[in-house]
User: Which sequence fits this backbone?
């Protein structure tokens, strides 16, 4: 298997997975639209995340507004810290992220973490210029990158679109604490849109201004930091770039396990270790091979203002290099303390001995759109010069495609009957009668549909259909009356393809 | 059954369904937060909508950004028309919707539809004053009620948060048309957040600034307006207030059927009629009795700028009166034509005879948060002075609650085992050991959990548990090893409660 000749961007556009938004108005950088299969794949990834991180543990979920009043972000520190290094071309007036321009010119990594002084110096040292017109650039300044608005049509209160979902879990901590019957540990999860008003997003789907986050805040007592499920993932192997290794400039990650990294103090808390283990398994479930995954510790200057330790979960993609798909942050009591101070409301929890304390927080935070790209990129393969999207069967946008062999002699009518019956039975089925059968198989494979159901002349005689496997191209034959039931067993992973019917 | 002594708002807050957002910062009108059971109920309603309107028909879904550049809303007409009548108190400076103040003072309905002149006159005639300080009010002015922002951290392009999802379906029409192999009719659906910068929202959860919309645009050829599924809902009885009836001031709706209303020209197109029939069934599925539902035609002055006919689907709630939960609009070719003009891009479809035309559009648009309130309000009942939320079993936030009879003698440990096994089996199970068993039953009923599973002393001896029905309070006993499997059958509506085990 080699890489496909088309980029995933091209295939995504052709097959309707995603494309740049507002195309008819010339586009707008940093915004993407998901088409029908994209919407379905995205929803399947979200469902899988919920299975791994929320449902099984019985954690809580909330939904908090996207627009928040300014005081929330003043208290949280975002008004002071949620900024990027902006530089303006003195000739054409375009603005850019100074650190990204330096990275592109020098090959340096994580320039942002070096701080404003170093960035100004590097910009001058390497004579970085406007990528558009070649003009000289102004000294970088820090610019707030939240979307700002006025709440109330006649104005009155300044608001911002949230750049993370987490503040909703902190500002609503007390309600969730009551719901959890005032017992720690518990977690609040939230999925939803977040917006970051990037200065000049230029890296396709991996750096967008509006995206979906899947975030979880685990609240625990620092005097009782035990995670009861740690043993579930204790032996999970991980590749880890520690803070020390990064300081020394080492590039080859340590091969260790969750429990070992915890024992050696490379991961600070049991809860972080647990979620990193679950994270590894979740991303593997999405089809990303373990050898393309690593955890990378943030250097102190790189960490967000709230974090005592952060590990990025990164995946290696041919088109994007190492890409962060999740951040595992130890936020300590920073946020609850900040909101206690900002609001004057009590944010403490009660120990059995009667003492009060502000809970500590561990946060696994996933970028859903980046997981989407990771799942796409790692599942695209080429077979006989055709693109095949070998997604795990429970992620595939469509479960089956129904295809009449030809569009005459009553075959389309019969195929539509089969299609409707599958829809009725709850199977996600596509129907396609346009073009040759070979072309339709190719289309079905390219969008990752695990099984193609073909209605042919024998169908009219025997009421049987042919099923074709996306990956092996093997075929089996089975009676229509068993189709829905068998397909359900297949998609519950209770059957292999050849168990579906009689091999032909 | 009578109404509960508590309002749904009170129960919702106590049980964590929803509450006003940003409480610790004094709140912000028009924003609500969903807690854990609320998030789950909301997701179940969305899933049911998808079953009724998208999945079964094989329609397309997309996900388009919330933030749109100004040119989208200039072309769509929103910049000119998406406005409300604002009036300001000359004494305290507070702003209000003039038409709402008039409605509150006079009992008149739909004052907005009367137009700016009439509103100014009514305000003076009835001497409407500031509800806060009693001060005199300025003449109303029309104010744009979209949230405005700058795209790009250093500014540059004005953007707005979308007030409806529909524009995404229009601006992406061509991609979906290609995906549908250039054949009409087809539909594009979208769920997601929309924002309306209401001047002064003062009607709780029914008038909010940020909410979730479930919208669908059906594109068809006006020369071939047939809906192939019309017969599915042709006989569905509906109550209808027609334009004529409203003009005459009649209050008692016509009792008719979908096909009759279509035949009599009261509904203009087959597709509208079809979706109105599906709408009736969907809202009934959510637990709203047919006699609390009606369709009300908009008068011409009330209709949105894009609509040739609109029927609101309204439900009657004790606390809110008649509440719009959906709008069924015949948008004609207004939007596609507007974007063709605004963008210069071709928005036509091709007939088999080679002629080109701009497709017409029918739109059913649901407010998810209002359906949520409707489902809550109509399912709350009182039994023995306790609140019981008699939600349809497939909507309930939690499927079962697991309760140890007492918190000693190993019962909590056994109950936690049962709880974990149910979670493993994919059942949405809550666990509760706090307070007396009677109190926990009450809590379980109040949040609408269909079945309570009690672990008692016999459980330790016989490995059986007691199941208690939320609505009848009947109890059955069954072996733990059959529990998950039987519960699954129950939640698939394949079993009645008494079919779950042996009655006790």
Assistant:
């Amino acid at each position: 298997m080699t890489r496909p000749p088309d980029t995933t961007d091209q295939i995504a556009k052709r097959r309707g997975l995603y494309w740049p938004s507002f195309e008819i108005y010339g586009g707008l950088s940093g915004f993407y639209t998901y088409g029908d299969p994209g919407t379905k794949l995205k929803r399947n990834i979200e469902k899988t995340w919920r299975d791994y991180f929320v449902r099984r543990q019985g954690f809580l979920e909330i939904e908090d507004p996207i627009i928040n009043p300014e005081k929330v972000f003043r208290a949280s520190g975002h008004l002071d810290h949620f900024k990027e290094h902006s530089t303006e071309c003195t000739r054409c007036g375009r603005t850019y992220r100074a650190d990204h321009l330096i990275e592109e010119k020098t090959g340096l990594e994580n320039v942002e973490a070096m701080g404003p002084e170093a960035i100004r110096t590097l910009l001058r040292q390497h004579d970085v210029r406007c990528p558009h017109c070649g003009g000289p650039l102004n000294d970088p300044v820090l610019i707030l990158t939240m979307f700002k608005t006025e709440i109330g049509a006649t104005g009155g209160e300044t608001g911002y679109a949230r750049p993370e979902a987490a503040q909703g879990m902190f500002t609503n901590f007390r309600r969730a604490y009551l719901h959890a019957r005032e017992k720690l540990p518990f977690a609040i999860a939230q999925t939803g849109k977040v917006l970051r008003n990037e200065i000049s997003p230029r890296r396709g789907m991996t750096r967008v201004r509006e995206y979906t986050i899947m975030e979880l805040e685990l609240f625990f007592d620092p005097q009782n930091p035990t995670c009861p499920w740690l043993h579930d993932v204790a032996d999970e192997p991980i590749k880890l770039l520690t803070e020390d290794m990064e300081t020394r400039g080492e590039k080859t990650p340590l091969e260790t396990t969750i429990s070992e990294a915890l024992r050696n103090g490379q991961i600070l808390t049991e809860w972080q270790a647990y979620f990193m283990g679950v994270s590894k398994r979740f991303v593997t479930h999405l089809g990303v091979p373990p050898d393309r995954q690593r955890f990378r510790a943030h250097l102190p200057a790189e960490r967000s203002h709230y974090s005592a330790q952060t590990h990025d979960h990164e995946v290696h993609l041919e088109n994007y290099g190492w890409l962060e798909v999740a951040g595992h942050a130890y936020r300590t009591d920073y946020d609850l303390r900040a909101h206690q101070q900002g609001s004057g409301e009590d944010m403490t929890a009660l120990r059995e001995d009667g003492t009060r304390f502000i809970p500590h927080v561990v946060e696994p935070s996933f970028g859903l759109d980046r997981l989407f790209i990771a799942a796409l990129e790692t599942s695209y393969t080429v077979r006989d010069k055709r693109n095949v999207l070998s997604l795990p069967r429970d992620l595939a946008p469509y479960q089956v495609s129904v295809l009449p062999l030809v569009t005459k002699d009553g075959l389309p009518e019969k195929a539509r009957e089969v299609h409707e019956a599958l829809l009725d039975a709850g199977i996600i089925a596509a129907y396609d009668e346009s073009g040759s059968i070979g072309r339709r198989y190719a289309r079905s494979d390219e969008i990752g549909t695990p099984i193609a159901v073909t209605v042919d002349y024998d169908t009219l005689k025997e009421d049987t259909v042919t099923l074709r496997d996306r990956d092996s191209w093997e075929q089996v034959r089975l009676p229509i009356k068993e189709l829905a039931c068998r397909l359900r067993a297949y998609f519950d992973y209770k059957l292999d393809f050849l168990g579906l019917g009689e091999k032909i």
